[in-house]
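Q: Entry one of two.
A:
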Amino acid sequence: MKNKMLLLVLVSLLALPNLSFAETKKETIKDEIEAKRESIKNSVEERRQNAVDKIKERVDQFVQNVVNRYEAAISRLEKLADRIDSRIAKMEADKIDVTKAKELMVKAKAKIEIAKTSINGITTTISTNATTTALMKEEFKIIKTQVEKAKEDIKTAHAVLVDVVKNLKPGQNKLETEN
């Protein structure tokens, strides 16, 4: 009986470190898994942030290109307006009735200023609050609306300048003065 008891004590003493070692091994494996999980989470978050940053960069570049194009269009409209003004002055010096053209020119200059204001109102960057693609899409919709409004304002200013030119045509002036 003593032998059995002694044997049992010996076996338990031998098994105890193995159980302790198994517990330690289990804990280290658990820690490794948790570390891998954190590493994967960080990697996914980093990729997501890189994607969001690239989208922001592309949208910012797109908006900047559109703004540059619209500003160039406004510049061309202003040059055209100056040339039309000088034509009006020449015609006025030749004693041609240009009152209607002058009225249209004032309207055209006002429309050009409205178009300038619309272009300046375009939000050129997506805010830092847009951290997800869904928020970025919402902000891009707003920017797109602003771009469309500026485009329409430029078209309106151009149309009014076309009306001024039509009014200045020699045949138009003669017909209007005869009637």
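Q: Entry two of two.
A:
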Amino acid sequence: MTGNWLPGLLVVFGSLAQSGVQVTDTVEGKISFQGMPATEAVVYLEHGTSALVASADTVVLDQRGLRFLPGTLAVSPGTTVVFLNNDDIQHNVFSPGEVVGSGDPFDLGTYSRGEMRIHTFPDLGVHTILCNVHPEMLAYVVSVPTEYRTVTDSDGQFSITDVPPGTYRLHVWHPQSSPVDQEIRVESDLRPLNITLEPEE
């Protein structure tokens, strides 16, 4: 078989191209902030030709152990968020709107364990989520104009899969840092990215 595999491989790639199958890549890496992993940072990719399409997705933001879980959601405009209460006490959900980013303020009222409240986020931007019963509770719903998005894990790692090759703007949002906006080229030999965030000015 030695020496015969290359023509066959070229035939396979040629067949993929002719059939319209798109080869995609993964954009991954690690984000740090002040010497520590940047957890729950939003990472997303924008392409100059991509069109913004309203989402019909529904996702869950839980209230458990006097915390919002997860602490950060990355969504598309039009996403509906279901706020669950899984604590044995009453909770509230509200957004002041003007504190961070964009979006109209709202207050979904106070409700007990096993109940839920629902809100749709039509606008781009960072939406601060609070509980007026427990002021220490804080979360963010970050609405971005692309499906190529993710949130870093507890180690600051991120991975965005199925990205078509091309040139993109990579954005990073973190509540305590200055935003990142840099150009990257997505191609087959793209190495993992290491990004260090700077404190907000």
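A: Comment on entry two: Residues 22-50+150-201 form a domain with the Immunoglobulin-like fold (CATH 2.60.40.1120). The mean pLDDT is 86.
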